[in-house]
Amino acid sequence: MRDARLILGFRDRHYRPIRCTIADGLAKLEQELGGRPPVGHCYLHAPSRLGQPAQFAAICFEPEEGQGIVIPFPFSKGCRARTSLEASIYLSLDELDGARCDQYGNVDLRDGRSVHAVSFDIVPLPKDFSDLEHAIVLLTIRFLGSEGDCIRQCPETGVRGIDYSAVPQLVVNNVKELARYIDANIGKLLDPSGKPLQARVPLRTIHRTLDVAGIRKSRGRRTKVVA
What we know:
Layout (H helix, E strand, L loop, with lengths): L4 E2 L15 H12 L8 E4 L12 E4 L7 E4 L3 E8 L4 E4 L1 H4 L3 E2 L5 E2 L5 E9 L8 H13 L3 H4 E3 L6 E3 L8 E2 L2 H11 L17 H11 L2 E2 L10
Parallel strand pairs: 1-4, 12-13
Antiparallel strand pairs: 2-3, 3-4, 5-6, 5-9, 7-8, 8-9, 10-11
């Protein structure tokens, strides 16, 4: 959708998801429009790379005239839903791509099935990371040149985020060298208020963040970390 307005903010300040269902997305859309969307103007988009499953979904509002709106959801493994007979089913995000959605959250899939009460199976973060801890993981990914493996992006909306399910495959061979890289680049990152993050990060904080995120450190001379 060209020239659409992208509505971010699907996690709170502690990075907990605040949009987990189609109903949540429609409520946000209604807020942006100042009323319920007209019938027949909402569909679901779940882009995927060639040969890879979709990991990201969004509600797209496409009016007859004027600017469209895209309401994205956090990265997800799939979604739970109910059929018209109230049976519980699990869908891949690919099955949502191109589905039509009405103002009440009823979803008509491309294969002809109708579902409702759609709730996303959101990829969990390792814990309620702070802005600094997320920045450490991001800079570690960049330090290792692994953005292609661990950063996911929606091609239409441009939304980028860390895929924490892929992060445990990373291995850091030299944490001290990583720490120097982080110190040199942490000040270039901004927190949600637009302020730069702190300029220097203690080595023990980096070690602890890598451990919680599941990023491995190669065996070598043991470093004593003071809590």
